[in-house]
């Protein structure tokens, strides 16, 4: 029998193996307004919130979704047709999939259609949290200075049109202003993006934006609004047609399911203006300082992804699992983590780093998660700068190891130049700076440091002669056609040799 489209009316007819909301959806309030309803929000914050609702029946914590861009329309329409229900397909390494229907989304507002609806929902009494997954680019900072980018024409538009903003800051400002005028407490602004110090960054950008037109209001926001930092983690590949088919095989007709791994982690700074769901009852950690957790995650997991993504792309691997199943890549990743990242990481409370790294490699090797290298390498210009460059810089300061990282940067230059694997197959390069990167990479054939000299990404790496020696030698060999796996092998051999040499001194 053909499955019927997922909706409130068809929930009861779903197979018993699929878990469903165990609370009264009609009675849900929207305690949270969430901007950026992508795959990650749906597999992470919404999943925790759903479990919290199921466990406590505290119906204040439904989530009203918001899409800021025209590009969100298709997804909004798909979810609206399903009464905002969707399935979370958790893919286990043994090939099994657990399906859970997530019901905590109460609505999905498309901001360009009705900006006022978004502002009034944020300003409503029931709203206690406005959360964000707007990607790194959504924070609108200039990567070279870390300051708010006033050159963005949307910013000028929003200052001139406070009732019809385009960017998230305009919406937050309009809603906070309204609450302030009405004598209501502000909501907490909770970033759930994989950005280091995500709460601090959000505060800095919002305050800078408001300060441009009302310094007194900016000061109020700075003093009265909370912006908790958080470390967020769950590998969530982009939804594909194959996932829709998989849902169908499980007895579900869902136009936009989301798939993810079983692992999930959320470490949240204990700093909320108002009440919040007690997410710690469903596995989140509430801590006073998230810094060590986020540094560990970004520099091991995300940088590890970048290492596999860039080197693996040259080799022609398609997914993270394919790359990490290649023995030389697995060794390279583990050696990178042990020799280049771990020595510059602080101790992380309650975490055994060795176990954490082993778990990471096992997560990457989940054969049921098809996490494409094109997703991993997308927006590398932003990722490399935050995931990898700080590790290299810290190592250079204390004369630590940087060789394996230097090969990754040389390979990224090659990738940015050719947009192909080393076997000539074309790669799907998704990066806002793709043209700039390609130009700098092409110039590197004559001026070898041209790519590395892009300061907004690499800081001052190009002026470190020891680092440049490795980098240049790898780049020259790549341009000469030497295969990346040979360079990886020789980099690892030397690593072992120098370690054993040290042992004999
Ligand atoms: C990935 C992340 O895009 C990337 O670079 O490393 O999306 C990663 O899968 C998540 O941060 C996992 O929590």
Q: What does this protein look like?
A:
The protein contains 20 helices and 11 strands. The chain is an alpha/beta fold. The chain folds into 2 domains: 4-287, Rossmann fold (3-Layer(aba) Sandwich), CATH 3.40.50; 291-504, Orthogonal Bundle (N-(1-d-carboxylethyl)-l-norvaline Dehydrogenase, domain 2). Strands 5-2-1-6-7 form a 5-stranded parallel beta sheet, sandwiched between helices. The longest helix is centred in the middle third of the chain and has 25 residues, at 291-315. The chain binds D-mannonic acid (CS2).
Brief description of this entry?
The protein is of the alpha/beta class.
List the defining traits of the structure above:
2 domains, 3-stranded mixed β-sheet, N-(1-d-carboxylethyl)-l-norvaline Dehydrogenase, domain 2, 11 strands, Rossmann fold, globular, alpha/beta, single chain, 5-stranded parallel β-sheet, 505 residues, binds D-mannonic acid, 47% helix
Number of domains: 2
**Number of separate helices:** 20
The proportion of residues in beta strands is: 5-15%
- Please give the CATH class of the largest domain: Alpha Beta
- CATH H level of the largest domain: which superfamily? NAD(P)-binding Rossmann-like Domain
Q: What about the largest sheet?
A: 5 strands, parallel
Helical residues, percent: 40-55%
Q: Provide mean pLDDT, rounded.
A: 95
Which strand order do you get reading across the main beta sheet? 5-2-1-6-7
CATH architectural label of the largest domain: 3-Layer(aba) Sandwich
Which ranges are low-confidence, i.e. pLDDT below 50, for 5 or more consecutive residues?
497-505
The radius of gyration is: 24 Å
- Write the CATH fold name of the largest domain: Rossmann fold
Distance, first to last CA: 73 Å
Shape: globular
Bound molecules: D-mannonic acid
β-strand number: 11
- Counting helices, strands and paired strands, the structural category is alpha/beta
């Amino acid at each position: 029998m053909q499955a019927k489209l997922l909706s409130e009316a068809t929930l009861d007819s779903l197979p018993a193996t699929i878990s469903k909301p165990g609370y009264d959806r009609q009675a849900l309030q929207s305690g949270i307004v969430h901007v950026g309803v992508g795959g990650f929000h749906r597999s992470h914050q919404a999943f925790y919130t759903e479990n919290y609702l199921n466990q406590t029946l505290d119906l204040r914590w439904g989530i009203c979704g918001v899409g800021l861009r025209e590009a969100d329309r298709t997804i909004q329409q798909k979810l609206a047709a399903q009464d905002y229900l969707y399935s979370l397909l958790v893919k286990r390494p043994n090939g099994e999939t657990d399906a859970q229907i997530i019901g905590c989304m109460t609505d999905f507002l498309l901001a360009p259609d009705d900006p006022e609806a978004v502002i009034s929902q944020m300003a409503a009494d029931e709203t206690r949290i406005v959360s964000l997954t707007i990607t790194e680019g959504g924070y609108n900072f200039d990567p070279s200075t870390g300051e708010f980018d006033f050159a963005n024409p949307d910013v000028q538009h929003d200052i001139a049109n406070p009732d019809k903003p385009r960017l998230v800051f305009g919406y937050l400002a309009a809603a906070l202003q309204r609450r302030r005028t009405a004598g209501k407490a502000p909501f907490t602004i909770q970033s759930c993006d994989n950005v280091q110090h995500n709460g601090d960054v959000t505060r800095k950008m919002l305050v800078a934006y408001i300060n441009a037109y009302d310094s007194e209001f900016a000061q109020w926001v700075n003093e009265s609004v909370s912006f908790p930092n958080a470390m967020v983690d769950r590998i969530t590949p982009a939804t594909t047609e194959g996932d829709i088919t998989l849902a169908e095989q499980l007895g579900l007709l869902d136009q936009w399911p989301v798939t993810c791994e079983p692992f999930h982690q959320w470490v949240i700074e204990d700093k909320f203006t108002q009440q919040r769901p007690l997410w710690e009852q469903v596995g989140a950690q509430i801590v006073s300082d998230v810094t060590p957790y986020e540094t560990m995650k970004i520099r091991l997991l995300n940088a590890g992804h970048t290492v596999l993504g860039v080197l693996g792309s040259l080799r022609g691997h398609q997914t993270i699992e394919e790359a990490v199943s290649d023995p030389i890549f697995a060794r390279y990743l583990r050696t990178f983590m042990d020799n280049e990242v771990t020595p510059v990481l602080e101790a992380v409370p309650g975490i055994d780093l060795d176990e954490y790294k082993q778990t990471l490699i096992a997560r990457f090797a989940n054969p049921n998660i098809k996490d494409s290298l094109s997703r991993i390498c997308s927006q590398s210009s932003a990722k490399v700068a935050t995931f990898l460059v700080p590790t290299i810089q810290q190592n250079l300061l204390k004369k630590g190891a940087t060789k394996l990282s230097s090969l990754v940067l040389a390979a990224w230059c090659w990738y940015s130049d050719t947009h192909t694997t080393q076997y000539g197959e074309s790669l799907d390069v998704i990066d806002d700076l793709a043209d700039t990167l390609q130009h700098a990479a092409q110039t590197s054939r004559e001026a070898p440091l041209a790519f590395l000299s892009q300061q907004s990404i690499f800081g001052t790496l190009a002026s470190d002669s020891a680092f440049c020696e490795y980098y240049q030698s790898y780049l020259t060999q790549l341009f000469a056609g030497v295969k990346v796996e040979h360079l990886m092998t020789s980099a690892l051999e030397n690593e072992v040799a120098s370690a054993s040499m040290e042992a004999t001194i």
